[in-house]
Amino acid sequence: MDDRSPADAPGRTSRGIQSIEVGGQLLLALSHHGRPMPLKDLAREAGMAPAKAHPYLVSFGKLGLIEQDPASGHYGLGPLALQLGLISLQQFDPVRLATPVIEELAQTLGHTMAIAVWGNRGPTIVRVAPPPSPVHVAMRHGTVMSLTGTASGWLFAAWRPWHEVAPLLAAERAGAGAAERARFDAELPARLAAVRERRLARAVDLSLPGVSALAAPVFDEQQRLLLSLTGIGPTPAFDTAWDGPVATALSRAAQALSRRLGDASAWPPLPHAAAVAR
């Protein structure tokens, strides 16, 4: 017996709640801009007066969808919005396919394994599989990874559209001195090209001293980067060789997942040492 109401029948337009749709314009505006905004600007972007927007913001704040910075008074997305976003990313089919893969890799390799996807602030960890060893590097869901300080970040910098990665790269180089910025700009094209050639990225003692990582990309049928498989461990115990067991296992797993998702492109041969120097 079909327990749906007549309004749920296929082809029938369901009636919504207008006030929720109106207030939702504030959430859409924050999502579109990707940064906290003052009340007047936020209200303007949502097409309403500040006096009308404020009660919605109060209610959204009570739910955790929005939070107000006590210093600036600006409104940004709150913790519940982040949780909903992470749950949505985790329900993405490629993530579900990759989850048992990183769990098996963590068990066989003895290192923390993670899945990162592209979020509105850059590469974001959405799944973590700890190893059986009591000594390992802990990662948290929702962690946003540096583009140039992490293995996952280098993958996304190499394959995401330039208009997405350029502002984040500019922000990361902004705090460096003139000589460091010049070296960064000179070396960046070659480093990105090397990541694309290897289909592997490596980070040794970059963002966190004593921590190293390797990451491999997972593509779809149009060769769009969907996610990264990342292995993370203490530098003294983590083999970062291009032809080592971690790199080889990550590459094989990433290629197998990519094939399942429709990628038919040619991958570098394994082991990688035959094609790329360490």
Beta-strand portion reads 15-25%
Mean pLDDT: 85
**Large-scale geometry:** globular
Low-confidence stretches: 272-278
Strand order within the widest beta sheet: 4-3-7-6-5
Radius of gyration: 22 Å
End-to-end gap? 64 Å
* Main sheet: strands, sense, barrel: 5 strands, antiparallel
H and E order? HHHEEHHEEHHHEEEH
| Class per helix and strand makeup | alpha+beta
Record field, number of beta strands:
7
Please describe what this structure looks like.
The chain is α+β, with helices and mostly antiparallel strands. The chain is 45% helix and 16% strand. It is built from nine helices and seven strands. The protein has helices spanning 18-33, 39-46, 50-63, 79-90, 93-109, 151-159, 162-173, 178-198, 245-260; strands at residues 66-68, 75-77, 112-119, 122-129, 201-204, 211-219, 225-234. A hairpin with a 5-residue loop joins strand 6 and strand 7 (225-234). Helix 2 (39-46) packs across helix 3 (50-63) and helix 6 crosses helix 8 (178-198). The longest helix has 21 residues, at 178-198. It is globular, with a radius of gyration of 22 Å. The N and C termini lie far apart (64 Å). The model is unreliable at 272-278 (pLDDT under 50).
